[in-house]
């Protein structure tokens, strides 16, 4: 099975958001954002869509399958 | 003063760890003294109730958003992982105590007391460990 890559850290930094600010915006803990960025935790579809909506991008811009 | 999700997380982690260690301590003393009540028998239960009350109070002094953030899907995942592993620890305790308990000449009531507290400790310490590792 392919691994899941993500560009969350880059997209968050481009918008000048801290992990805590993004976490508050989507209603999860800062730890959750940190573990997603470090590929320790794979978020649910609902959280992935919330992150995409908050960052103003598509889910495919945040997550992609490793080739 | 309203507690944040980080405060809730910290209180919950330390409370569960303290109760887990209390349960391990009770089991070790029970096995060491070969009796089911090495100290006050209600001590592990009292520690668990105090921890639950402490966590409940923290939730009471936190806003709904902080509660939701502290109980998000990462915590649910950590909690479920600890439950899965604690289940197998509990199952493996039966043969372990069946073999070593009887060969060491431990009383059955001592074994039941130790297994009961170790069952609780396995979940409490695993959830603390997994929660701490994601911090």
Throw out a few tags for this protein.
heterodimer; A: 67 residues; 434 Repressor (Amino-terminal Domain); 5 helices; B: mainly alpha; elongated
Query: How much helix is in the residues of chain B?
Result: over 70%
Radius of gyration of chain A: 11 Å
The major β-sheet of chain A equals:
2 strands, antiparallel
Largest sheet of chain B: none
Total of DSSP H or I helical runs spanning 4+ residues of chain A: 5
Name of the CATH class of chain A: Mainly Alpha
Most extensive interface, residues per chain? A-B, 14 and 14 residues
Using the CA coordinates, give the radius of gyration of chain B.
17 Å
Mean pLDDT of chain A: 93
Q: Helix share of residues of chain A?
A: 55-70%
CATH superfamily of chain A: lambda repressor-like DNA-binding domains
Q: What can you tell me about this protein's structure?
A:
- The complex is a heterodimer of chains A (67) and B (135).
- Chain A has one domain (4-65): lambda repressor-like DNA-binding domains (434 Repressor (Amino-terminal Domain)).
- Chain A contains five helices and two strands; from the N terminus they run βαααααβ.
- Chain A has a two-stranded antiparallel sheet with strand order 1-2.
- Helix content of chain A is 57%, strand content 9%.
- In chain A, α2 packs across α3.
- Chain B has one domain (5-133).
- Chain B has five helices and no strands.
- In chain B, α1 (5-33) crosses α3.
- Chain A binds chain B through residues 23-24, 27-32, 35, 40-41, 43-44, 47, and chain B through 5-6, 9, 65, 68-70, 72-75, 77, 134-135.
Structure in a nutshell:
The complex is a heterodimer of chains A (67) and B (135). Chain A is mainly α.
């Amino acid at each position: 099975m392919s691994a899941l890559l993500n560009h969350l850290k880059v997209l968050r930094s481009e918008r000048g958001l801290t992990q805590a600010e993004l976490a508050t915006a989507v209603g999860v803990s800062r730890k959750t954002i940190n573990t997603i960025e470090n590929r320790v935790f794979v978020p649910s579809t609902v959280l992935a869509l919330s992150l995409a909506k908050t960052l103003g991008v598509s889910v495919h811009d945040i997550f992609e399958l490793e080739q | 003063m309203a507690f944040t999700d980080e405060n809730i997380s910290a209180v919950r982690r330390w409370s569960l760890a303290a109760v887990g260690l209390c349960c391990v301590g009770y089991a070790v003393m029970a096995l060491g003294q070969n009796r089911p009540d090495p100290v006050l028998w209600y001590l592990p239960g009292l520690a668990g109730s105090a921890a639950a009350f402490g966590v409940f109070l923290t939730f009471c002094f936190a806003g709904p958003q902080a509660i939701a953030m502290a109980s998000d899907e990462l915590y649910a995942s950590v909690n479920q992982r600890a439950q899965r592993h604690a289940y197998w620890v509990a199952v493996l305790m039966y043969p372990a105590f069946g073999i070593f308990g009887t060969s060491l000449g431990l009383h059955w009531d001592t074994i039941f007391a130790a297994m009961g507290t170790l069952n609780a400790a396995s979940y409490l310490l695993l959830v603390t460990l997994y929660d701490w590792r994601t911090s």
